[in-house]
Write a structure and sequence with these properties.
Layout lengths: L7 H19 L2 H25 L9 H11 L4 H18 L2 E4 L7 E4 L2 E4 H20 L1
Helix pairs in contact: 1-2, 1-5, 2-3, 2-4, 2-5, 3-4
């Protein structure tokens, strides 16, 4: 089954391919950055889908405003707050200035502020994003 490219699941599939296939052979910071960008996109789609399921009338066009609106729409839902904070952390990694460590080697990593994203950490981010996309679909 082929997923729509403009959906949370479609973005996760692309991030999964980047992680399991492309990163395996290239070991570059660009692949890590592109994977993180796909994770951000999938979380943004998931947030939008949750707001649409709640039938929010005015969904803002800016992703950060959508995340804030989601928190306000579900003020007592602990999981939604966790999802939004995870999204903000991944967005920070995506948009921040990064330093490349050990490019083309086994331990390739990018460092944004105090967050080091190496291959095991990227795996955790990918798995957590998959969980949140599943949560948003089951919501």
């Amino acid at each position: 089954m082929i997923e729509d490219a403009d959906s949370a699941k479609g973005q996760v599939l692309r991030a999964d391919h980047l992680f399991h296939v492309t990163l395996k052979y290239t070991r570059t910071a660009d692949v890590i950055k592109n994977t993180i960008k796909r994770l951000v996109n999938s979380l943004e789609y998931a947030i939008t889908e949750m707001l649409e399921k709640k039938k929010v009338k005015q969904i803002p066009p800016i992703a950060l405003m959508k995340a804030d609106l989601l928190k306000k729409t579900f003020p007592k839902d602990k999981e939604v707050k966790e999802m939004v904070s995870f999204y903000l952390m991944v967005k920070k990694v995506d948009k921040g200035q990064f330093v490349i460590k050990d490019e083309y080697r086994k331990n390739v990593a990018i460092v944004v502020d105090d967050i080091r994203v190496d291959i095991p950490k990227l795996r955790q981010l990918l798995d957590k994003t998959k969980e949140w996309v599943k949560f948003s679909n089951d919501f």
